[in-house]
Each structure stands twice: as C-alpha cells, then as structure tokens.
Amino acid sequence: MRPRQLYLFYLFLLMLSPAAMAQVYTRHLASGNVNDFNKAGASGVTAALPRRTLKAVDTQALLTEDEQRTKLGLPDRMGVDIDVQADFMQIAAVTTEGNLQIARFQFDVPSAQGLSVLFNALTLASGAQLFIYNTDQTVLIGPVTEKQNGTKFWSDLVTGEHVVVELKEPLAVAGQSIVQVGKLIQYYRFVPKFGFNTSSSCEINTACYPAYQNEADGVAMLLTYYSPYTYACTGSMLNATQQNFRSFLLTAFHCFDFSGDGSLQTAERNAAASTQVRFHWESPVCSPTAADNVYLTLTGSTLQAAYASSDFTLLEINQQVPPSENITYLGWDRNNSNYSAVFGIHHPSADIKKISFSNNATSFIGTVMTTGGNYYTSPGATHLNVTWNASPNTLGVTEGGSSGSALFNADRRVVGQLHGGGSFCTSPTSPDQYGRIYTSWTGGGSPATRLSDWLNPAGSTATTTNSVKSQVSGPAAFVSTATFSLNSGSSITSWVVTGGNGVITPTSGAGNVASLTATGTATGATITFYINAGQSYPISFTKNINASAGENFPPIASTIPARTATVGSPFSYTVPAFTDPEGLPITYSAAGLPSGLSFNAATRVINGTPTASGTFVSSITGTDQGNLATSVAFLFTVNCPVTSINASAATVCL
Fold first, then answer.
1. Domain ranges of the chain
2. pLDDT of 6-20, one tens digit each?
3. Bridge partners for 466 per DSSP
4. Domain Dystroglycan-type cadherin-like spans what residues (predicted)?
5. Structural contact between residues 144 and 106, judged by C-beta atoms closer than 8 angstroms
C-alpha cells in the first residue's frame, strides 16, 4: 500500500529563507477588466511590451513519461522549469505615470497552459509593488512588497502562454529595487487554474455542505519545494489548550520524507521554509464548481515536530495568519477512542477544497514502512482505519494531494491526519489510514517527535479542545465605561489602547480583559491585544473604538426641505449631515423614497430616476453608536413630465 501521492510541480528553485514572511493574494478577474486591475493596484497592459519568447519544453514526451510514472506509483508532475536568468530592470520598458515609475516586461512560452515566475533575487524599495499577471488579465498576483525582501520568491501560476511582470516604484526611490528573474515554470497539466477541477467526479465541494464551513476554514493547501520538485499536500490549523492563536498546522510526515526512508534529514526538515500555505482555495458555490476569486498564500514555515510511526508533521507558519482571513483554529481530540462517524476535508489532486463522509465505524490499525516510502497495514493501533460511504451515493474519497488532511469525529474535532490508503471513486470501500492524534500526542517522547509540547505547553489535563476563531469582543463605541476582551488565554495576553487624545483610561494592562473608562470624547482610538506564547513572530488583534464621557444623547437632525423631481429625469440630492452631541460617528438610513430612487448611506446621497408620480412622505434616520436614533421627515413630490394626460383622478405619465 502506498501513501497518498504528493502531487508536484517539476521545478528548479533556490531554497526560500526560513525567515520569509511572504503574504500574497491571487485574484481571478473578469477577462480584460482593467478597472479590477487598477483597484488591486496594478496598471495592466495598455500597449505592446518588450518580450522574450522562450522555447517550450517537449510536453508530449513528459506526458508519455507521466503515464509510466503513474503506473509505478510515482508522484505526478505538473510543470517543468525553463531557464531565464534576466535582470528585470535591464530588459523592462520603463514609463512614468503620475508619481510612479512603472517597469513592465512580458515572457512568452508557446503552448504553455500556465506559467509561474521564479526570482533569484528580490529586493523591493520602500513603497514599491510587484505584480505578475497574464495578458488576458484574468489572473493577477500581488502586490508583492518589501516584506518579501531577502526571499527567493516564486509566484502562483497565471493561465496561458504569456506572463507579465510589473514593478511600480514611487519616483523618490525609482530604480532602487533589485529584481532578478531566474526561471519560468511551464505548466502542462492541471490547468487552466492550478488544481481546479482536477480531482475525480465523486469528490464534493465543501460549499455543498455550508454547515461545515467553520471546519473548512481551518484547512489549507500546501506546496513545498524540495529540489527539484514542488509537492502538494493538505494541512489543518490547530488550536492549543492556551488558545494562543499560534500558526500551528498539522500535516503528514511523508509530505516531508522526500527520500521515503522513514526519517527526516536536515534538508528535508528545512524544506518547510519553502512551504506555501494557501487559504480559502475553495469553490464559493456547490455547483457548478468555480474557483474562489481571491485567496491568500503565506510562504515560510518551521517544522516543529514529526513522527514517522503516526505519520504526523507539525508546521508553524512563520507569521500570524491575518485575522481578516477569518480562519478557524481547529479543535482536536486525543482520547484513545474509535468513532462511529467521521468526515475529512482536503485538497485531492491539488483541487479546490472537498469534503468526504463516512458513517462506518473506525477501527485501530498499524502500518509498516517499506523502502521508497510505501507501506502496508499490520496489527497495531497507531492509525485509524476509515471506510468511506459507498451507498446510496459515494460521498467523497481521498486522492493524491489529500495527504496530511484532517479527519474529524462527530464532535467536529480533529482525530488524525491522512497517511494513505486505497480509496478511489471506483472503489470507495477500500479503506484509508489516518495517523492518530492519540499516538502523536506522546509520539517518540521528545518535543521534536510529539504534539503535546506545542499544543499543550502549560501541561493541561484537557483531552480535547474546541475549534475557535479569534474575536475581540466589545462595543464599537461606548459612553463612560466598557469592557473589551480577546478569546485567548489570560496569562499570555496583554493589551494597549492608542489614540483617543488621552481620554480613555487605563491605556494598558495584562490579561485578556480590558475595562476602560472615558473621561472625554475620543474618536479613532484602538485597543490591541498581544499574545506572548513563546512564538518567534508577533500575534496581535485590534479593534477600533470611539468613546465619550457622561450620558449619551441622540443625534441632532438637520432640516431637510421638500424635494421635487420628475418622472424619467435623473435626480440627485445630498442629505445634510446630522450632529452627534458626543461627537460619535452616525449611520444613516432612508425610508419612503419614491420608486426608482435609492439612498447611499456612506455618502448620504439620494439618487436615481423616478418611475412614478405622486407625493411621498420620506424620512432620513441617523443612529449613533450608542444605538440612539433621530429621524426627520420631508415631502417628496414627483411630477409628470410636460406631456401627460388626465384619466379620472389619476395622472398617467407618458
């Protein structure tokens, strides 16, 4: 029996720095929509660019080889590298647009289904932004910023035969960036979108089961470079007993055992530094399958612990996952138990996120590794044996790329990670094996071979944790006093208040709860909670707040004179702003507007084209952040245009 194959790109990359803090978004856009590019910060292609056409690799020969590799159970290749070695600033077309210098260059690889760019050196000047996109302008990667300086950054793929690299620098630092392009990757399989619709037909999008989205938000796709290949696996973010929001991610031992010898060499452990973690790679709808429009990739992790017997690896991403991503830190169960029903969430064949279900009871089983990374089952209890549902319909299985994915029990806690097995859509009852959290908890008896030191550093007796999303609780605005809290462990948390003109006290404290008092009016203040749990990177959570002292009073409305409009003619009117006695922000709403008109609460503008005549009583309401409201009514008359006819008591506009 073989481990679930690690799907790979055939790459030749230089090792990424372990300190890499790459955080880059990939966007899928409507074809040729320059406005979408501009909103993301890129300029897009507006004229012919200098270009270099590179000779494509003979993909037919590669595909023939891939057939043999598949029969031999070897990992599937997705792409092959092409040497470039170019100083971007020496070959790019450079223009000045406003206060920016913009450099662009295009690479072409005929017959390529997709392309990625590998940089030998990347040192961006302060304020500079780098973008990578295709000439169809349907895929945009970036911005890449100075935060990636010092790394051997490599991009996600863009579809098609053409890729454009664009560098935007403020004029004050123009020409100071260093951008060296080392190679391109020519993709010849699993395109148009990397991993999109590559899995088998019985796999189910997680969007088909929205009740499981909370668990799906904790699962990510992994790409790891180990010369000369890049491998795909699945990983899952884990909670800790301290609820410290460290970026722990569980995957499989064999995802890093590239030599298949059952041990991790130094170079294999260091490969974690190149690992890209892709969040929210999922279909937004159940059917038809679609790629998410925007997803985040974080590059650079540290391998904290691994144990071959239960096939687990615990990575720690070298930075905090941005709170805006709303990821779930998954709960786990380390009890010595079997389970009557389980489910798994994974990225089969590097596809978008899928979910699989089993209503069959698990059983304990062991595994024995053989040369080359294969294994066979044996009596033992290091793993859980799982048989997926086969009737009345197959509800998902696992595939290559699913390796390392979490198995959940009925309480939705992680109880293991995928080692391998024989399930396929055509044979769903062939069981899969998951290394047990129970076994991995004590592992090989050392911090480098067990989970307990990392997920339970304070030595709690808890055998389970629940899934959690980070949350700063407390009002957006308060009068006199308010309490704020972070759902973290108190002993590892502190907080600081900034801004607010010094009228909010106290301004700092220890613990995960802050009781604040306002002695005056403060707008634009923030409270930030900090976590110190022994991690090597900062973890913080911020909430914007406004405050005032004393009693809260409702907003004071401005007079709105009667308004007149005409059917069929455009109308626009800006409602005068209300005043809040405490100086707190006000939100606006409208009611009773004539048909055809709408109200923009952010700009306070009523606009549109009336579609029916008559006299209407309309109103505008202003609500402060203490939830007190004031409304003002006004008459709104909509007249017919000059040409009209009278019919009984009604006026019909022509």
1. 7-187, 204-455, 472-548, 563-653
2. 444 333 333 333 334
3. none
4. 555-645
5. no
